[in-house]
Amino acid sequence: MKSIVLITLLFSFTLFSAHHVVTKIEINYGSKDGILVKKTSSGNYGILSFVMTDKDEVALLCNVEQKVKMFNISTNRLDRELFLNDIPEDFIYDNGVFYILAGYKIHVYSKYGPKFLEFPISNNFRFIHRLQLVDDRLYVLTSQGNSYKVFETGRALPCEQQEKDFIKGWIFYDRGISFHTIKINDCKFLLRKFEHGDRVKTEEKIFTVDKKIGSVMIIGIIKDVIYFDVQYIVNDIPLEVERMILAYSLSSSEVLDKFKLPGIYYLYTKRDLITAENSMYHLVTTENSANVISLLFDKDIDRTAYPEYMSYKYHYNNHLPKETVEPFSPPIRDRPISQTRITRTQILKNADAYEKVEWVCSPANTTNHQVVQLPDGALIRTPAWVTVGPKRKMPYKWGGFTHIDNFLPEIANGKYAGDDYIAREPGYSSRGDTYCVGVDCSGFVSRAWGREKQEWTGSLPDISYQLPGWENVQKGDIANKAGSHVMLIVENNQSGTLNIIEAGGDMRVSYRTYPIIYLTGYVPRKYHMVFDSLQAYRRTERAFIIRRDYGFIEFINENSPSHAVLKYILYRKEAGGEYLPIEEFSGGFTYYDIFLDKDKTYTYKVESVDSTGQVVEISNEPTI
Fold this sequence. Notes:
Strand order of the largest sheet: 39-44-40-41-42-43
CATH class of the largest domain: Mainly Beta
Low-confidence stretches: 12-18, 328-338
CATH architecture of the largest domain: 6 Propeller
Mean pLDDT: 87
Helix content: under 10%
Structural class: mainly beta
Oligomer: single chain
Largest sheet: 6 strands, antiparallel
Number of helices: 4
Number of domains: 3
Radius of gyration: 25 Å
Shape: globular
CATH superfamily of the largest domain: TolB, C-terminal domain
């Protein structure tokens, strides 16, 4: 059963009920009792997320220091801190206990004491938006819009069961109800509500706005009011974004409030908006401090604004360190990669190997947080996470271009693992694999694209095409900021957020999800040697006053997959919908998809299936 409600919004003016803005606490950077900030080639880091442990205490998840730091709001002082043994990715708090996501594991800590539980989660959960607790059950909410149960009544679920035990949509307060946001087109987004029972019932609300939507996410739910983080595009190339909070009543089906957020992003924070009790909280990171702001929605109190010192604009992407030299070309002994046409699937397969690689760090592979000078005169420092013991992921190395096949032998030979020391003069970085191994952002993309020579962010535009907009990106494309940083696109989520893989941030090759605001200043580009096996074009026929739209779909089976293929299945989905099979073929084909709705967009893909029924390859996914 499905019901649909249509809602029209104008974002160009303020309206409706009051929001009351109060600064709860201001925490300085750099001081012993403050927050340690690290500036890198991909951004500024220090605080990943935050939670309210009670009305008078805030806990910050500090990724640079690998700590949870708890601050007393009344005294504005650090009360206590927890030391973590891996780089954290998210956390949640409940009744004196922290659940911390790090390295495909959940680490459970008492607020007052040490870790008392640790359990693995599936390493297929590569894009986790957040953790959520509901009725003593812990869920991971993925960027693709599903909720996976990983822990229940004191018991961790096996990884195989975690992958199977999921519901569609994000769960917030009731395990029988979940929600999903879908960007339909530039000016429409959809809220889909699932009621889970013997039969799943869905209810849909379509919002039409007067801005170009970049991404839309649910912040949380207070009573019956759902709060959206709506990010809209002011300029596509280079990207410029603004944000608005939208409050919507689920019971009365009306918009209660909406207002624009300050445009200050000194640090990258994975979650800077949360709901707790009857308030929303906003973490604003200025150039001098981290500020926790309370946003109270109440018709009976006066509307107040953010502090005056938050009225300016600042984004760390516009202040990244510049690459000062072109990268090193690898020696002849490095295994060459064929520079022929490459499929998008192969690009992601190449990239995935750098995230999956497992290795053991020996004392010879680390500088133990110290800057050391190599025999060639270069200064290096291995990343803080490179400590003795088992590791996963290839480390970041400034100027690095290590091939995946060479990494493990070089580590075994005692080479340094990575280099994050960027405060150096031009020409003083370690080139090649002689003393130090790893990849930087452009070296990683060069390897994923199958380049024989290392490119840098300033040369990538010479071998790629600029795409007209962010809605056009597909897997294997890049978000590039020439002279600074580059990321590889893995998936364009229905919410408008982007799943990416990059070398940077946490000083290793990692998967993560970015709302569109964190791509400010970047340009979308497509590699000029990529082979798109599936092409789709929209065409229109007219006969007198009758118009008919149809799709011209062409699949070229140029690259042989690694397994014998029995058949190729063509799928189609409408915006906001799911893929449905429409035809099967034994080889390359041309297909006419007739009688399309002129007001809808459609996306196609082809799955290659072997004799056992397994999908062995998936095509690119063009939209018309």
